[in-house]
Amino acid sequence: MLSLFIKLILAHLIGDFLLQPEKWAKHKAKHKLGSKYLYWHLLVHAIALLVVLQFNVEYWLAFCIIISSHFFIDVAKAQFKTKKNSRLLFALDQLAHLSVIALVVEVYTPYLNKISAIDYNQALLLTASIIAVTSTSSIIMKTIISKWNIDEDAGKEHSLEHAGAYIGILERLFVFLFVVLQFWEGIGFLLAAKSIFRFGDLSRSKDRKLTEYVLIGSLISFGLAMLIGLLYLKIAREL
């Protein structure tokens, strides 16, 4: 049961976050059913599902349920999405996808012992966790803090292109690693080091909004990485 759940979650993370460019998401929101990227997105999901399920024909019903439901959920999201409700719809969208996955796992539970396939549970769990802590967390953070408008061009001439995004990804990977290794002191050291480096820039900027924006982003980033790390440890013990 847990093995199938991990596989389906991994396919979802790959299709919905890792291999869905922002360009595709915006095009789907604008053109809805007429967006070619809606169908490219479904194709990516289909391939990801086939790979993680190891092309096992016993899972044909699960494949059909997930792909068809994904289509209708994404179309509904595009139809009702506005700037004001984007965060709520993002949460509902993910909840709907996860509910379908949970339903599929529940349906297949009585038959799982009869389905023969090679399981790489630990590797699949680690892969899903790394995707969640990098690209998935980046999108979640962007969705949460998008309600605050900060001048993104301010100081851009003194910053490397996309440096903030890469720093955030590395930061969360380190936190995830420290949680898995139970090295809590490392998280404290990382947070302290970031605070020291950031303090000079923020104190010189004299911009209260920017200070609060960075603080909120840092706390969300650390919180997500710690949560994913703890979930990884809990699930890994049960495999």
TrEMBL record:
Transmembrane regions listed in the UniProt entry: 37-53, 59-76, 88-111, 123-141, 173-193, 213-233
Residue ranges of coiled coil: none
Signal peptide: none
Entry keyword set: Membrane, Transmembrane, Transmembrane helix
Pfam assignment, any one: DUF3307
Superkingdom of the source species: Bacteria
Stated name of the protein: DUF3307 domain-containing protein
